[in-house]
Amino acid sequence: MTLLDQVCSIVGPGNVLTAAADQESYLEEERGLYHGAALAVVRPGSTEQVAAVVKACAEAGIPMVPQGGNTGLCGGGVPSEDGRSVVISTERLNRIRAVDAVDFTLTAEAGCVLASLQQAADDAGCLFPLSLGAEGSCRIGGNISTNAGGTNVLRYGNTRDLVLGLEVVLPDGQIWNGLKSLRKDNTGYALQHLFMGAEGTLGIVTAAVLKLFPRPADIQTALVAIPDPDAALHLLGRARRASGDAVTACELIPRIGLELGVRHVPGVRDPFDAAHPWYLLLELSSSRPGGLREALEDLLAAAFEDGLALDAVLAESGDQRLAFWRLREAIPEAQKKEGGSIKHDVAVATSKVPEMIRRCTVAVEEALSGVRVVAFGHLGDGNTHFNLTQPVDADRQAFLADWGRMNRIVHDIVVEMGGSISAEHGIGRLKVEELAHYKAAVDIDLMRRIKSAFDPRGLMNPGKVVPPLP
Amino acid sequence: MTLLDQVCSIVGPGNVLTAAADQESYLEEERGLYHGAALAVVRPGSTEQVAAVVKACAEAGIPMVPQGGNTGLCGGGVPSEDGRSVVISTERLNRIRAVDAVDFTLTAEAGCVLASLQQAADDAGCLFPLSLGAEGSCRIGGNISTNAGGTNVLRYGNTRDLVLGLEVVLPDGQIWNGLKSLRKDNTGYALQHLFMGAEGTLGIVTAAVLKLFPRPADIQTALVAIPDPDAALHLLGRARRASGDAVTACELIPRIGLELGVRHVPGVRDPFDAAHPWYLLLELSSSRPGGLREALEDLLAAAFEDGLALDAVLAESGDQRLAFWRLREAIPEAQKKEGGSIKHDVAVATSKVPEMIRRCTVAVEEALSGVRVVAFGHLGDGNTHFNLTQPVDADRQAFLADWGRMNRIVHDIVVEMGGSISAEHGIGRLKVEELAHYKAAVDIDLMRRIKSAFDPRGLMNPGKVVPPLP
């Protein structure tokens, strides 16, 4: 029996896709950076089926590529071009196994779409706080495997902080059952943290127990015009203190980000009469009813006096709140329409964000005349999407050819400042070389040792995350 | 040059303790369960000295035992009796390197006493929330290595959730520098999470960047008399929702715990006129001034109506608050004075705590007539110290001889319920066999593979955490 026959007998022939047209959407990377090839795309319907498929592939020596919603931004979920791999899609593992409002937990299979989990939590009077641009199509297994970030990290943590338990199929097909609802468990090494952020190189996440929180009853959102990112830092600290640490989003937006949004994205408009150099989208939320509005108004009144705020609008309705968020979320889309973009997903200590933006801006403008810096993002996490838009009227391809050179300039500064070259998007395939360049030898060595310990034959998502031996 | 000469040349002869009297306090386990022996106790004064000592020991093939405040409850920090090991104490690594109230971070060396970090945070207008009984003498490196829990986990997480970055000396003497202040960093495997909870078996934590939080401005504490643990669960859920998730402690106390405290511990008194079966110590705190008192009063008013609360006292002063806490903290001390205690540090899903207490109580009472169950602890984390006090007038030694049998009864039920046999105290030496008994073979195998990958010669804290091959 060939491997494909074996796999068909496990998942049924309808769930083994071999025709090019059927495979198409599984092989193309989100931004079009990679287009892989696969022996087959397999869609198991249960953890046991995943385990059986992995065991069969392992015995046949066939590389495996786990895939969730295929929304990753670093190519971690697409196979290489050689066509030797089997893609294992989790999309049929889409049952919510339990929602428990007493425990504040939700147990879900890996293929559940993030938005469906947010909805299930909401239906139970709770909040599942993970929130990011792709939430309508990304799947929780991918979120976990990449330790996804998003807009609520400041208050609720990264994905790894939202996971209580995991179930994982190991590279040899064994099932690791860590699917527990425990808030404290000090019985040995933190295996589940290894799988989170490993981008499927150590095993395939098949299910998880997630933390829920009380659903907010009071949400206050302000768009604040500010003189510079330093002011944003001070506002953030004041807001955390005044609100009982209820700042659930703190997004920095540069003038150019707003301008591009207004120019290219329908429905985006500037709520202020005058132009301001920077904006801060500040959102407070709490399940305690009342009080945040006053806290926010007091905060802003003091900020005007101290010159930290130039102008501000508070959302008076849910629609107005969404309009503020749209202004923030429109930036990547607007950049795309404005021409080529070179992207960086960097983090430094929160207090160093202003310095990082200043230094990197000077450096890239010196290196490429006319380049337009669009630095925005999750100020509260020290995470900036330091994106570059091509000079006006420049050639798009010529600009994009500078990707590596620009990356090196920005990443050199970020790393010198103790920062991260991939704050929330991961390494995947896109940043493996960059990782090898910047990580200390001892880090790379430890990663290789772990990879060998879990996957001695290197069959699980090969070529991702762990730099190959030189 | 002998190893000891070498080590003396690294740290200075005054920091190499070989006389029995000098070594004494480093060799005795907190509860007197173990008394180890050591070639020497070495006290390095810097990370570089730790690295050099480890390198020298590794080259000489000498086992090493990292030690912080030596307050662990499972023998993880004391050497074995064979006298072949070197104890490496972190006590001289006691500098606070930085406190940053803008970043909300504190950078400390491993030997800093926990209470000194709490104080440093407070001095900067911030909170470092880790809090536990031994805080006056335990050291942060030990807290990190054991992933310590304590009373604030419900709101702020376990120690691993409070750590942004780590510096670790690996078993071969290399320094792993993960000492970063990043709130997002997805560049490869979560190495720092492996070191946390590994109890020094994968390396020695030498420094850490810790998360700070806004300092509470409003603290409200209530002692609530309740009919049973189920009522506590409902109160917890309501309190989380009503307070904006500001419940920072939720401690369950049984009638017998209060009685023993009143009997044995000076200053502990029962604040109620009548006797009640159970009590809940509920604390809300927030940096947002005002509002929690009203929330708590409303909550209790509703609870009286619904029969969830039988009586309640709200702390009217800081002293009264401390008296409530003293009532809770007195339980272990009071148990000690009442006779022999057999202890369990177990966790189940929060919603299953009442069932766990019921089932375990029936089982141990059946197995040993007259045994007195004192089940108390961190209800909000699902973590119960299910402790047994000897029957009245029983022989202490005969009772303690039942330790293993009682453990088996309790742990069987807890594991069957998907729980943990060591919620916050870790494995150390005390629970290695218990771990081997209860963990799945695949878990133990993965732990051994990791241990071999990091410490192939098994020199770093041997005999702890990882069960030996049979």
What does this structure look like?
Chain A is built from 16 helices and 19 strands. In chain A, strands 12, 13, 14, 15, 16, 17, 18 and 19 form an eight-stranded antiparallel sheet that branches. Chain A has a five-stranded antiparallel sheet with strand order 5-6-10-8-9. In chain A, 36% of the residues lie in helices and 20% in strands. Chain A is globular. Chain A folds into four domains: 3-89, 2-Layer Sandwich (Uridine Diphospho-n-acetylenolpyruvylglucosamine Reductase, domain 2); 96-214, Uridine Diphospho-n-acetylenolpyruvylglucosamine Reductase, domain 3; 218-336, Alpha-Beta Plaits (2-Layer Sandwich); 341-416, Alpha-Beta Plaits, CATH 3.30.70.2740. The longest helix of chain A is centred in the C-terminal third of the chain and has 21 residues, at 318-338. In chain A, a hairpin with a 4-residue loop joins strand 5 (96-100) and strand 6 (105-109). In chain A, helix 9 packs across helix 11. With 470 residues, chain A is an alpha+beta fold. At the A-B interface, strand 9, helix 7, strand 11, helix 8 and helix 16 of A face strand 9, helix 7, strand 11, helix 8 and helix 16 of B. Chains A, B: InterPro entries: FAD-bd_oxidored_4_C, FAD-bd_PCMH, FAD-bd_PCMH-like_sf, FAD-bd_PCMH_sub1, FAD-bd_PCMH_sub2, FAD-linked_Oxase-like_C, FAD-oxidored/transferase_4, Oxid_FAD_bind_N. Chains A, B: This is Hydroxyacid dehydrogenase.
